[in-house]
């Protein structure tokens, strides 16, 4: 087995352990489809998990399910790099919002996550954190029209933001009409609960702000851009907002 395949299998086993712990009924067929491997591969994974001491119960008969004993605790949390970055950034947002609830242990969690990164990756995380800004709470008028953006939009925007990559979007204007734009997502701004992307708009050739919940479609353009200064976007808001 190559090193890449071994790492992929270890990651799959970790995900299987969490899945079998959380879900009351899983079949080998369903697990194979979800993880895009054969049923025989899933069966070998389950055998290895049993050898490691995990109590995995299986129902007899055709279509029988498998589950992890409810009294067995899933072990250490093993995050991938992208997952750890997302968690660190979420912690940074919570800390910037100065909420007194549930913050007691966040500093400790952040230190442990940061310590797991190499020096160059720590610098990259710090750069990403500096590009996430907190503003004042959105007005009641804005909140009344807010809807959570679809996951596909969030994923495309997230990846373009992290990779400094241009994004082609269909944007719903204030008058309700769609508009095609190519944007450079330089910063993200949270005016709770509404997220905005502060971007260079190639259509207007100037910095603009876009409400994320008004982005109707998003596709990465495959072209990188150079990060601009935060001060370039100070004029994007004229409604009493501020950037930290």
Automatic annotation (TrEMBL):
<dbReference type="Pfam" id="PF08279">
    <property type="entry name" value="HTH_11"/>
</dbReference>
<dbReference type="InterPro" id="IPR036388">
    <property type="entry name" value="WH-like_DNA-bd_sf"/>
</dbReference>
<feature type="domain" description="HTH deoR-type">
    <location>
        <begin position="9"/>
        <end position="67"/>
    </location>
</feature>
<dbReference type="InterPro" id="IPR036390">
    <property type="entry name" value="WH_DNA-bd_sf"/>
</dbReference>
<keyword id="KW-0805">Transcription regulation</keyword>
<keyword id="KW-0804">Transcription</keyword>
<dbReference type="InterPro" id="IPR001034">
    <property type="entry name" value="DeoR_HTH"/>
</dbReference>
<protein>
    <submittedName>
        <fullName>WYL domain-containing protein</fullName>
    </submittedName>
</protein>
<dbReference type="InterPro" id="IPR026881">
    <property type="entry name" value="WYL_dom"/>
</dbReference>
<dbReference type="InterPro" id="IPR051534">
    <property type="entry name" value="CBASS_pafABC_assoc_protein"/>
</dbReference>
<dbReference type="Pfam" id="PF13280">
    <property type="entry name" value="WYL"/>
</dbReference>
<dbReference type="InterPro" id="IPR013196">
    <property type="entry name" value="HTH_11"/>
</dbReference>
């Amino acid at each position: 087995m190559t090193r890449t395949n071994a790492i992929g299998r270890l990651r799959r086993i970790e995900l299987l352990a969490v899945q079998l712990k959380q879900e009351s009924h899983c079949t080998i067929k369903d697990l194979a489809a979800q993880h895009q491997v054969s049923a025989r591969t899933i069966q070998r994974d389950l055998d290895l998990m049993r050898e490691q001491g995990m109590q995995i119960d299986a129902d007899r008969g055709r279509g029988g399910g498998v589950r992890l004993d409810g009294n067995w605790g899933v072990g250490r949390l093993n995050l991938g790099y992208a997952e750890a970055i997302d968690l660190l950034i979420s912690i940074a947002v919570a800390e910037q919002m100065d909420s007194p609830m549930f913050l007691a242990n966040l500093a400790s969690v952040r230190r442990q996550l940061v310590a797991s990164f190499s020096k160059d990756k720590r610098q990259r995380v710090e750069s990403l954190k500096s590009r996430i800004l907190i503003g004042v709470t959105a007005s009641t008028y804005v909140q009344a029209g807010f809807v959570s953006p679809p996951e596909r939009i969030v994923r495309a925007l997230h990846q373009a933001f992290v990779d400094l990559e241009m994004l082609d979007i269909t944007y719903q204007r204030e008058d309700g009409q769609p508009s095609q734009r190519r944007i450079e997502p330089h910063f993200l701004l949270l005016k709770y609960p509404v997220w905005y992307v502060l971007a260079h708009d190639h259509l207007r050739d100037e910095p603009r702000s876009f409400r994320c919940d008004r982005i109707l479609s998003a596709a990465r353009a495959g072209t990188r851009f150079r990060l601009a200064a935060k001060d370039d976007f100070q004029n994007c808001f004229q409604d009493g907002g501020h950037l930290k």
